[in-house]
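Notebook entry, cofactor series.
This is the third protein in the set we're modelling with a bound small molecule. For this one the ligand is magnesium ion. I'm keeping the input format identical across the series so the outputs can be compared line by line later. Sequence and SMILES below, as received.
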Amino acid sequence: MRIGIIGAGQLGQMLGFAAGKLGFEVRFVDPSSKPPASVCGKVIQSPFDDPVALIALAETCDVITYEFENVPVAALQHIDGLAPIYPPAEALSFSQDRLTEKQLLESLGIPLPAFHAINSRADLDIAARELGLPMVIKTRRLGYDGKGQFVVKNNDDFDIAWESLGDKPLIAEQWVAFDYEISCIGVRSVSGEIAIYPISRNVHVDGILRTSRSPLAEERLSETASGYVHQLLDHLNYVGVLALELFVINDQLLANEFAPRVHNSGHWTIEGSATSQFENHLRAILDMPLGSTASRGHAGMVNLIGDIPDAIRTQTPGVLHDYGKSPRPGRKLGHFTVIADTAAECDELVDKIDKSVNQST
Ligand SMILES: Nc1ncnc2c1ncn2[C@@H]1O[C@H](COP(=O)(O)OP(=O)(O)O)[C@@H](O)[C@H]1O
Ligand SMILES: [Mg+2]
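Returned structure with ligand:
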């Protein structure tokens, strides 16, 4: 069995390791010359939308998946019928456009922050009247790690926001003074079996995920979030792992966005769950029975951004995942996971490690 993966970054690498554990081969398409996943299998070096490379991948693999959500849907049409592609293109297309993504969440009755499509400078004023300030302007497409976003705090910011982002289709969103952020990761197999991981609490700094911890004591939030993920998985006839990000405010949940792929806020599942999100993604797309999503203790994950300090290489307890990327400010180079017996112990370890590794970012 060979799995074709579009994208060979760290998510592709961790999928590749999980595939190896299950006894499967992997093959990738990626434009970079030595991407992180090249340690797991052959990489066809090509742009993600190159039909020749995608056809070569589909013709030599039993199933196709992707590690990032900006694979052009049109490019996938070139390989339609050559091999099954999971998650389905419809889910990919919803998640690629923040407007259609939010409209989908709204249509399913999942609560989310108020939003307004922005097609002209005048729409900014209309949105501000409707949503109030601050509000956040986001590009509808291609944003990640907080990129393509502008927080409009007062009237002076309107022109600056328009100048920096106005050449692209935009969305304005109510600013949520959240208490904290969570995510809920679910997986659905070809046969429709569903498994959901315990929610994790996530901290972002400058729009980039810094830490995740799971499980949380908040049973009701966990159940509600799982229900939303369940709804999304079923509605989209989804196959694979899906991650839903949510804000928690006054014990209520507001959905932020979903990703049709394995997710950074689920990296703790490698050590912290009976079955990792990577293994379960593969099980789902190969229509194997899903593995248990039960937690093994309290897991905490710290992203290593911009630099992997030497001290972390000898840190115990915990496990270092070094993606093998060259250092660059703001770049996710690896992550470090700890497992503890109690939430308090986990918190202490995560805070200590986060302070020691991310002082300068
Ligand atoms: N409406 C909002 N209110 C408050 N914070 C927000 C809002 N939208 C985004 N953020 C902050 O920015 C982070 C990144 O935004 P997000 O919409 O998830 O985009 P990305 O695709 O870059 O992850 C969020 O995790 C959150 O911390
Ligand atoms: Mg996000």
